[in-house]
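Here is a complete protein record:
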Amino acid sequence: MNMVLEIPEHVAEAIKAPSMDRERHLLRELAAALYARGMLSFGKARELARSSKLEFGTLLPEREIPRHYDAQNLEEDIRYARGE
């Protein structure tokens, strides 16, 4: 399922971003906001933002959004690093 959000033209024009980057900028802002509220995981938010792990990981501290990372995530990362 794809979702299309309609933004009135006068609102879109008021967004302070270059017109050619506006969509990407909005997707990044939406992804960061949804991640901050716990509505999207890091991976899904990164996907929505159309960003690499590094890019999205850099975006969060720029917006003072803490990374959601707990003991379970650490264990999963360790198993992944070991090839398990």
